[in-house]
Recover the amino acids of this structure.
């Protein structure tokens, strides 16, 4: 007898709205519970049968996943951007919970990876470092905007240096603007100290993992990039091949075609049409894309990838596409050697794939 239960959970700061249906899609129960660990455990422990649970990615997702997973057979954290059916029809907490349960039962939910908690500490440190980098950049832009607002050119990084700040301040005749700029400089100094501290802690945590030393030796990647890759990906076995890894990194070329087939003499035949491209995929991890794009810029100046990049240019591939190919190559190498637990060997890097083969 089918004893499956499908549970949709619509999460909010104040409540969790839960809808439960059985394996035949029949309504079992609805409940509104407080987002409290004890109450959540009691609720799911009381459910009988094989329980499958779904809720959307959000602020509480990691906490709920760790809390609920040991109590049920399956936990799916879904990406709402890929589940368009959730946005059709009426919008309400109970309606959303019911839709989640229905889509879970039909297998129509695209899951977000939450499977490995071994790198949880490193993930938090990488997030802290990334936020502080963004905050520093934001304050630096504000400092330059003060000068630009008065028609003062301030290209480069000299405007941030402590030893010449007095000269920059003298260019502002308005005392109120000088006071504002002084506060921004103090904010920048504080953020830089915090960023350096976050960087030290992040790298210290990353050194605990043996894979860190493998990844950071790949040309174009360094200690920070290796820590970010390790924290975000967690395990390379999430991706069977490089073609599953590229979309996650935002390096997959999106193709478009239509009316592919025709009937000639009563037989179905594929048309000889050129497949059009539509740029790179839009749903990706932004940190990883920045990592591999920056790695491509750095790697093409190294001895190993300089020749590879030049081969692409010699084949009349546009420079931006050549850099994309280098980024994809580095991502593929990272995945391969991470799985094999081998260090990067420049002699084994295949040069035969230069050109459009990497963009297929």
């Amino acid at each position: 007898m089918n004893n499956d239960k499908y549970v949709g959970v619509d999460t909010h700061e104040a409540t969790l709205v839960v809808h439960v249906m059985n394996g035949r899609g029949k309504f079992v129960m609805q409940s509104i519970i407080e987002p409290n660990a004890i109450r959540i455990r009691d609720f799911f422990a009381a459910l009988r049968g094989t329980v499958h649970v779904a809720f959307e990615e959000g602020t509480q997702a990691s906490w709920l996943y760790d809390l609920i997973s040991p109590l049920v057979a399956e936990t799916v954290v879904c990406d709402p951007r890929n589940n368009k059916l959730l946005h059709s029809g009426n919008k309400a907490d109970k309606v959303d919970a019911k839709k989640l349960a229905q889509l879970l039962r039909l297998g129509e939910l695209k899951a977000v990876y939450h499977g490995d908690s071994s790198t949880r500490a490193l993930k938090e440190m990488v997030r802290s470092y990334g936020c502080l980098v963004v905050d520093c950049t934001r304050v630096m832009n504000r400092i330059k905007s003060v000068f630009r607002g008065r028609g003062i050119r301030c290209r480069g990084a000299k405007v941030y240096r402590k030893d010449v700040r007095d000269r920059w301040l003298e260019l502002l005749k308005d005392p109120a603007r000088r006071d504002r700029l002084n506060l921004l400089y103090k904010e920048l100094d504080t953020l830089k100290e915090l960023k350096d501290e976050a960087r030290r802690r992040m790298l210290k945590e990353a050194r605990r993992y043996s894979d860190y030393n493998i990844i950071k030796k790949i040309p174009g990647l360094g200690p920070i990039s290796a820590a970010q890759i390790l924290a975000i990906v967690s395990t390379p076995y999430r991706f069977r091949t490089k073609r599953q890894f590229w979309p996650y990194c935002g390096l997959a070329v999106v193709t478009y075609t239509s009316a592919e087939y025709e009937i000639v003499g009563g037989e179905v035949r594929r048309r000889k049409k050129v497949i059009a491209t539509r740029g790179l995929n839009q749903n990706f991890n932004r940190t990883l894309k920045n990592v591999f794009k920056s790695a491509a810029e750095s790697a093409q100046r190294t001895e190993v990838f300089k020749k590879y990049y030049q081969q692409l240019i010699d084949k009349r591939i546009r420079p931006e596409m050549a850099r994309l190919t280098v980024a994809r190559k580095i991502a593929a190498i990272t995945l391969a050697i991470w799985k094999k637990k081998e260090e990067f060997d420049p002699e084994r890097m295949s040069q035969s794939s230069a050109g459009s083969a990497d963009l297929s």
The longest helix spans residues 175-206.
